[in-house]
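F.,

This is the one I mentioned.
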C-alpha cells in the first residue's frame, strides 16, 4: 500500500500538473502558490484533490466505524481503493494521453478519494510507523528513536516503509515518462489487487 502511494503521486505530479493525491499538506501549499499567482500550479486540480480526500475520509470513516474486526477493515478498505483506482484507470484509458482540464480534475478527485480511504484504514489499524501515505514522521522516528526504540522490528518497519514509497515513486515516474499515466495506474491497480488477494488468503487461513 505504501508503494502504491509513490506510484499514484508520480502520476498526479507528472501527469496531472503539480497536484498531490495522497499527501494533502502539499496540496494546501500548492493552492496557496496558485492563489498568489505562481506559474505552473493549478488551484482547481488541488482543490478537487482536497475535496475528494475529505469526501473519502468522511465516507471511509463512517463505514469503518461499523466494522469491528481489524482484518475486515483492511479488506473493505482495499476493495474500495481498488475499485476507485480501477475507475481512474478506465477514465485515463478512455480519454487517452492528452488529458483535458476536466479529466485532470476528475482523476485527481477519484484517486484522492482512494488514497483517503487508505489513510483512514491505516489510521484505524494504527500499525506503528506505517501510515502508508507519508514518511515524514517515519523518518523522524527512524533517526530520533533509533537507540531507544523498544518495539520489535520498529527500525526495520520504518526503513521498509521509506524504501517502499521511494521505490514506488521511482518505478511510477519511470513508467509515466516512458509509457504514460495509464500504465502507471495499471501498476497501482495490480499492486492493490495483490494486496487484496494476500489479505483474503491471510484472513481465510488464520483464526480471527
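My design for it:
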Amino acid at each position: 500500500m505504501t508503494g502504491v502511494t509513490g506510484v499514484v503521486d508520480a502520476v498526479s505530479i507528472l501527469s496531472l500538473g503539480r497536484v498531490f493525491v495522497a499527501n494533502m499538506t502539499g496540496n494546501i501549499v500548492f493552492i496557496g502558490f496558485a492563489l498568489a499567482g505562481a506559474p505552473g500550479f493549478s488551484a482547481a486540480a488541488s482543490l478537487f484533490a482536497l475535496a475528494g480526500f475529505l469526501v473519502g475520509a468522511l465516507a471511509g470513516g463512517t463505514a469503518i466505524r461499523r466494522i469491528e474486526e481489524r482484518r475486515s477493515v483492511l479488506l473493505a478498505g482495499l476493495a474500495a481503493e481498488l475499485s476507485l483506482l480501477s475507475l481512474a484507470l478506465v477514465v485515463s484509458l478512455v480519454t487517452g494521453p492528452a488529458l483535458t482540464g476536466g479529466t485532470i480534475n476528475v482523476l485527481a478527485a477519484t484517486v484522492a478519494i482512494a488514497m483517503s480511504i487508505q489513510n483512514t484504514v491505516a489510521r484505524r489499524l494504527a500499525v506503528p510507523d506505517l501510515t502508508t501515505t507519508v514518511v515524514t514522521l517515519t523518518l523522524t522516528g527512524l533517526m530520533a528513536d533509533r537507540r531507544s526504540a523498544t518495539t520489535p522490528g520498529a527500525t526495520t518497519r520504518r526503513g521498509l516503509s521509506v524504501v517502499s514509497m521511494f521505490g514506488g515513486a521511482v518505478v511510477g515516474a519511470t513508467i509515466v515518462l516512458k509509457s504514460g499515466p495509464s500504465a502507471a495506474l495499471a501498476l497501482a491497480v495490480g499492486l492493490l489487487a495483490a494486496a487484496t488477494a494476500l489479505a483474503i488468503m491471510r484472513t481465510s487461513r488464520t483464526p480471527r
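The two ends are 22 Å apart (CA to CA).

Talk soon.
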